[in-house]
Amino acid sequence: MATTDRTQQDAQKLSAARAAVKFVKDGDVVGLGTGSTTTFAIKELGKRVKEGLQIKAAASSIRTQELAESLGIEILDLGRLSQLDISIDGADEFTDSLDLIKGGGGALFREKIIASLSKNAIIIADASKKVKKLGAFTVPVEVIPLAYQYVFDQMHKLGGKGILRTVAGQTFITDNGNLIIDADFGLIDDPAKLSADLNQINGLLAHGLFINITSKVIMSDGEDIIIFE
Ligand code: 5RP
User: Fold this and answer.
1) Mutate which of 13, 14, 34, 40 to test ligand 1's pocket (most atoms within 8 Å of Cβ)?
2) Which residue has its alpha carbon closest to ligand 1 atom 4?
3) What is the signed CA dihedral for 61, 181, 117, 52, rounded to 10 degrees?
4) At residue 3, does pLDDT exceed 90?
5) What fold does the segment set 139-206 form as a domain?
6) How far, in Å, from the CA of 40 to the mean position of ligand 1?
7) Residue stretches of the annotated binding site for substrate
8) Side by side, which strands form the sheet with 139-143?
């Protein structure tokens, strides 16, 4: 991507993040996603906390936890929470019916828990993330290592061409000690059906299709903030 495109995309991410952070109020317990777009939101929240906003948060990844704590945001144990007032996260793709692909950063399992716990699950995005149909971005799937081949083969039967995720030549390991398979299902006609089929596979911890879980998507196109809900 050219530098100008990247700068414009970052400006859109920042605008969407600023719009989302306005929904956070004193006393909220806030779920924090992972990724470059969410990083803008965490930094904006950090500024508001320095100005006196009283919040606590739960983090979807170790890197989000470290960033939030460095900005003075108190992090609670996600595993002990029954509900979050609000959550802010990014996405790799979204449609106007609020179906998402997430997990480009490999944090999909904890992100799904956070979205499920959230009364107001907000996704923030630049305009490049909006698609008519999901599937140009591969579907990340978190797999327990001893079930790797089984899950890989079962996904193949569903039409998914999988690749084990590596980073700089090394197998990518999630914060939960698991593997990621990035699966290409082509453009997905029925994301809810595929999500349900994937949920049936033993050993598959979580997949990156987020269906009926998002309250709103806040997108910036560089000029306007557009809210899909
Ligand atoms: C991480 C995610 C991210 O939200 C998604 O990959 C988008 O990342 P970015 O904001 O960097 O484009 O799901 O697991």
Assistant:
1) 34
2) 90
3) 30
4) no
5) Alpha-Beta Plaits (3.30.70)
6) 12
7) 34-37, 89-92, 102-105, 129
8) 161-164, 179-184, 139-143, 204-207
pLDDT in tens, 107-129: 999 999 999 999 999 999 999 99
Is the pLDDT at 97 greater than 80, yes or no?
Answer: yes
Ligand 1 neighbour 37 (Cβ under 6 A): yes
b or e along 12-31 (b: 16 or more beta carbons within 10 Å of the residue's beta carbon)?
Answer: bbbbbbbbbbebbeeebbbb
Task: Write the pLDDT tens digit of every residue in 149-200.
Answer: 999 999 999 999 999 999 999 999 999 999 999 999 999 999 999 999 999 9
Q: Where are the domains of the chain?
A: 3-130+211-220, 139-206
The predicted structure's pLDDT at residue 149? 98
Distance 179 CA to ligand 1 centre (A): 17
Q: Which of 182, 25, 216, 196 is nearest to 101 (CA)?
A: 182
pLDDT at residue 1, rounded to an integer: 67
Could you tell me the pLDDT band of residue 6, with boundaries at 50, 70 and 90? confident
Instruction: Provide the CA 171 distance to its chain's centre, in angstroms.
Output: 21
Q: How far is the CA of 175 from the centre of ligand 1 (A)?
A: 15
In this structure, what DSSP letter does residue 74 have?
E
**Which residues are catalytically annotated?**
111
Q: State which CATH number among 3.40.50.2000, 3.40.50.1360, 3.40.710.10, 3.65.10.10 fits the domain covering 3-130+211-220.
A: 3.40.50.1360
Q: What is the pTM of this model?
A: 0.96
